[in-house]
Design goal:
alpha/beta; 9 helices; 8 strands; eight-stranded parallel sheet; TIM Barrel
Length: about 300
Amino acid sequence: MNRREFSQLTVGAALGHKFLRGTAQTKPSSPSSDPFRLSFMLWALEKQAPFDQCVEIVAAAGYQGIELVGEFYNWPDADTSRIMARMRSLGLVFDAMSGVKAGFAVPDQSTDFMAQFAAQVDAAKKLECQKIILLSGKRVDGLSPESQRQTAIDNLKRATDLASKDNIQIVIEPIDLLENPTIFLSTVTDGFDIVRAVGSPNVRVLYDIYHEQRSYGNLIEKLERNIDLVGLIHIADVPGRHEPGTGEIDYANIYRKLAELGYNKFMAMEYYPTQDPTESLRASRLAIQQAAPTPPPT
């Protein structure tokens, strides 16, 4: 299933009466016992409830961030101002965003890539978002992997020259070959290799645990070897892209390892809830606390 197919979801009809758009709510406090800053990739909720209700769900579950996939391109200035005010009142930030359609590893798309990326930087500044997610695009028939790799390096160097002026970081996301059989960048192993070649602190890898498990596995060893190049973590279980703990991935071990390695960036849930969304997100947060508790201050 790709990230736009939600036919298997059955809980959406129960949401409408639980969250009222624009109603005054107490600002959720950021739980001091959370070992990581937590976010939710909002596309996984937006077929179940309107955008504003999704924001309320994430805040009510005690998260600190929200991630976007291009929703902002359709927001008039008045909506942007209203949404930003509501986010601030709830103690939320937009921690990451995507929406660039052109692939950074496709030579024929390089001009479009830079133009779209510049537009995304402008949007990121308006939304006070400091991280942009980029995809490689497809493998090109007749072009060697080495040539596409070099295109990726060259385009990412150009992009980071632009983004670094506004302190915006790029994270490149591999997608598993089951979801996208034609994608060029399909594993974090190659992602780390490209990032090392780019050689900029403003370019890092989005380590999506779900995608990496589906095609390659060996999750923890790759974290141990490359934690300095990880700019963002995405979480969902395999199979089904549901809550951590519903499938084959031992997330408790992964959380403990990330804490041991000193990971201090956002961790974003990107899954289809199988129960009430607020309770699902809250349970996922509490499971992290239990697996990797924050030591008490000394």
